[in-house]
Amino acid sequence: MSTTPTAPTSANPGWYTTGLPHIWLPYAQMKTASAPLAATRTHGTTIELSNGRCLTDGVAAWWTACHGYNHPHIRQAVEAQLSTIPHIMFGGTVHQPALTLASRLSAMLPGDLERVFFTDSGSVSVEVAMKMALQYRLNKGQTGRTKLLAFKGGYHGDTLATMAVCDPEEGMHHLYGSALAEHIIAPLPQDTASTAEFLRLLKTHAHELTAIITEPLVQGAGGMLFHSPDVLRTLRKAADEHDMLLILDEIFTGFGRTGSMFACEQADIVPDIVTLSKALTGGTMALAATVARRHVFEAFLSDNPEHALMHGPTFMANPLACACANASLDLFEQEPRLEQVQRINMLLTHGLEPCRTLPGVKDVRTLGAIGVVELEKIADPDALRQRFITQGVWIRPFRNIVYLTPAFTITEADLHKLTTAIYTVLSTP
What we know:
The structure is a single chain. The protein is an alpha/beta fold. The protein contains 13 helices and 16 strands. The strands form 4 sheets. Strands 4-12-11-10-7-5-6 form a 7-stranded mixed sheet, sandwiched between helices. α4 crosses α10 and α11 (337-352) packs parallel to α13. The model has no long low-confidence stretch (mean pLDDT 96).
């Protein structure tokens, strides 16, 4: 019996029918999953398929393509870099795109977040942040503080170490529970009861904790769960009182998605370590960064070689990816991205609010360029996605939510098409 999804037979290109039997798709039960779409071109907020159909992308390539697809400024930067240094090892050599990017990120981030460690994926950037936090203690001779405090509803990646700081019950990694390192998982301190629980756990486990880690303002893969800037202020204060590091995972929230360049700005706090990825390159190439404050970096300076951070991805600081990221930052400087996010927020609020009255809808909420319709349940997310495709849109429901995270450059007409499709599909049994 075949365990590869079979697409409709019409208009399948040869590369599709030949290659599909050899692909293992992400987050998919390969025995029952619907066939993936054969994409042949992207532009703006449009995905073109091999059968000639076009879909309006409502999720910006997994929250990355903040400037839309194929922006000419980023494309030109890649072409120019390709002719000089496509790649070179970052061990013992450096190059202009990486050093320029590091200095620009340091200038943009709050406080003294000034030391940038490049990786090639968001999960690995969190792994590096965790290693920094653990070795920060070890280099200080504090051998007992080897755990992190994370939060229910949180998601920080799919690699083995990051799975251990994701929600252990509601998250997608609960099957691995017995194989993961043990950390402390608390409710986010959002009200009197959860704050009391958080502070109790902190007091009880402070002697074994090195850091607190969270996604600021929005727990993305946990269900687009929002919390106020006050929560971040509570975390910063608690971390200071117990001599802990605060790690903010801004992989999803960074670069304008929540309405400010970085989500932590809305709380006026400075994390000790921040992780960045996704929109860092404008959705063009894989790149991530773990950025540390001065006092964290200085804990690694020593005459003892074992105090160095022993981590180095092969494609660390890839020049092509860094060139993309620099071009993306150019666009944030030259074009009104945050103003566009404000406009998107108003349109999302207006377009999604009518869904609140539909049967089965639990909540409607927006923040920055994020719009969420939370349902009581979604029995079959795959089938629901297919219904959106028939409406000419690419929307990928998960858990119990239907959400939009469009490119900041999306037109009002395309955004209206997306919100209308959501209302139409959810209002039709």
